[in-house]
Design a protein that fits this description.
22% strand; globular; 7 strands; 6 helices; seven-stranded mixed beta sheet
């Protein structure tokens, strides 16, 4: 099985969906071997430790360049022989040195239907706030490969979610997670892990 690292920054609900998928046999072509957090107090670390997964904390230092942080991240990934990276609420943009080293082996979930409400600055509640401000009737989530353009990689899957009257950003966020993100991310991680495992034989 492929060695998978999941990169997180917060509560880790998408990480939990991946851990559940691994436990339930949905994710079987790869093994989550490492969870890396950009924040020391991220609850995602607790989720990982509870599941018996190795963890690492890699905080971006004050004034540290994106390239230097990327080099430190790359060193950790290579030390653990990671073959596939899953971004699950990771709030830092990966430097080109990481993206290039793992070309077509980094996957991300974004809480909108790309190309709507995406790119630099659209994270957390912001895509949902933008969707409500625009007045769209349908939003959703996208799983895509990561390249050197924020949210610009090839789309692997999308799932639509209806916007309801009276929605708040928080309420919409929870529905998109439940109806789209937690379904798409494990399924597409398994598909990519399977494809990569076949090509390395």
């Amino acid at each position: 099985m492929l060695t998978i690292a999941v990169l997180v920054s917060g509560g880790g609900t998408n990480l939990q969906a991946l851990l559940d998928a691994q436990r339930n046999g949905v994710l079987q072509s790869g093994q989550i071997a490492l969870v890396i957090s950009s924040q020391e107090d991220a609850y995602a670390l607790t989720r990982a430790r509870t599941a018996g997964i190795k963890t690492a904390v890699l905080v971006k230092e004050r004034g540290e360049s994106s390239k230097r942080y990327g080099q430190r991240l790359l060193a950790v990934l290579q030390t653990h022989r990671v073959e596939l990276i899953v971004l699950a609420g990771f709030l830092l943009i990966l430097d080109a040195c990481v993206v290039d080293a793992y070309e077509n082996r980094v996957i991300n979930v974004h809480p909108s239907l790309i190309p709507s409400f995406c790119g630099k600055g659209y994270y957390g509640l912001k895509p949902h706030e933008a969707a409500l401000e625009r007045g769209v009737k349908i939003t959703g989530a996208t799983v895509h490969l990561v390249n050197n353009e924020p949210d610009g990689g090839r789309i692997l899957a999308q799932k639509a979610v209806r916007v309801r009257k009276g929605d708040t950003p928080e309420r919409l966020q929870k529905r998109v997670m439940r109806q789209a993100e937690w379904i798409l991310l494990p399924a597409e991680t398994e598909k990519l892990a399977y494809q990569l495992s076949q090509t390395r034989r």
